[in-house]
Amino acid sequence: MTVINPATGVLITNLGTPDAPTPAALRRYLAEFLWDKRVVDLPRPLWWLILHGIILRTRPKRSAALYGKVWGEQGSPLLATARRQRERLAAELKERGHQVPVVLGMRYGKPSIAAAIDELHAAGVRRVVVLPLYPQNSCSTTASTFDAVSAALAARRALPALEFIADYHLHPGYIGALAASIREAWSQQAPAERIIFSFHGTPQRFADEGDLYYDQCRATAAALADTLELPAERWLMTFQSRFGREPWLQPYTDRTLAALPGQGVKSVDIVCPGFSADCLETLEEIALGNREHFLAAGGERYRYIPALNERPDHIAALADLVGARF
Questions:
Q1: All domains in the chain, ordered by first residue
Q2: Fewer CB under 10 Å: which end of the chain, C or N?
Q3: Beta partners for 203?
């Protein structure tokens, strides 16, 4: 029996995307993203000068060209996938007997988290389950999402009850879906000599100051390797997408790929377990750019295994996560 319960609503969130693959749109998006203290925590006056005096004068054009490589008929791949995830999660919850509002809000860009909170308020929601689609908890993603939710509620007289899902890096459904996606790829083409689990990087300093992210990435990679029954010499954990000059979490994905052929490894499979949906960092950086690094160094076969996106087993895992809070 389906229970209609508008008093409870679900907010799923992800990083966000520019409105278009143009320098102007990237300038707006990067200005919001890079001004977040959770992302760049330099003193504000110094960082304002660097951001507006250098970065926003040069990076938008380069970033727009990269986005242009992955932009589709439905626009940003991340936003298009997030919309499908929202629709399918709502349908899955309804199938399980929970007819509740499910809305989407992006941390940066549109649709915003504030707009999503307004949508839930208009539906009469008095309790919100917030699911940031980051399996591993980082101050630069999960905590920043909490900040945005709090800011969206700051001006309200009546606050809804909040259930905030901080991470799901070892959730059995999530690990199972990842393992199933890899096994499916292996059923179509034999496994490579190495499989690389590439996670988004963060400054090493964050981990040194207590961020949970590195340890949770390591736990996810180990659990996935165990589920796939991989011996230690068959898999690697690396970190991609570094920015700036300070040390980030290592080993770096691009440098690892450039070095492997010289070590006799000619084929690799690569998967990004920290990304719930394909986006610029997976479709351009990993599927295209890092392929070039590997092949140019003497590699012979490179396969990117897509993110979980709206796979039914992924949606089922997300429904398990939020459904447990009803």
A1: 19-70 (no CATH), 172-305 (3.40.50.1400)
A2: N
A3: 248
